Amino acid sequence: VECHYDDPVAFFVYTTHAVDFHKNLITFVGKPGSGERKPAVMDKNPGSEVWNYVVVDYKMTAQPAADDPTKSNVTTRVTYLNYGPCDPNYTGSKKSDVTYTYWVKGNVENPTSGEWTGESITKHPHFLWYPDFQKKEPGCPIDYQVVKDIIKKEDSL
User: Fold this and answer.
1) What is the pLDDT of residues 32-54, one digit of tens each?
2) Mean pLDDT throughout 63-86?
3) pLDDT reading at 135 higher than 60
4) Closest CA relative to residue 27, chosen from 46, 16, 17, 12
5) Residue 31: helix, strand or coil by DSSP?
6) How far apart are alpha carbons 115 and 110 in whole angstroms?
7) What is the pLDDT of residue 46?
8) What is the per-residue burial (b if ≥16 Cβ within 10 Å, else e) of 89-119?
């Protein structure tokens, strides 16, 4: 995290409207079931405090809306890396899930509109973003190679 604190941004989108969240998950993280996922970063609540979490996966389920055949009710469970309190001897990745509900209109893979429903009206992501590693200026205050070596050791355990 420290090495990428001030990275330039490749994409950034506010997710005030559910359709923006939905389309950008598909576009930047990857299509459901594609097997190829790219991480993105999400502020998972719309409040004034910003807590960035790395999105590592998501699962969407869509059902046609009973009241409008052009709408689909969507439930999206997002899996993210949680850096919350844990045992100081813990190694590995701590993952958590958060579920959002909303509707979209039109094609589910490329909807034209959509809005949050249920608890997600007030508890939904604030924004999604992804760093532009190609434009990163040197200046990481720690030895990044040491971090890579630690990660390699963890993966071999």
Assistant:
1) 666 677 778 899 888 888 888 88
2) 88
3) no
4) 12
5) coil
6) 14
7) 87
8) eeeeeeeeebebbbbbbeebeebeebbbbee
Which among 85, 7, 62 has a CA at the least distance from the CA of 39? 7
Structure tokens at 104: 């979209």
pLDDT on residue 110? 92
Dmax (CA) for the chain in angstroms is 57
Q: Tell me the two tokens of residue 54.
A: 């790395």
CA pseudo-torsion sign 27, 29, 31, 32: negative
d(CA 62, CA 125): 19
Q: Which pLDDT belongs to residue 108?
A: 93
Q: Which residues pair with 104 in a beta bridge?
A: 72, 114
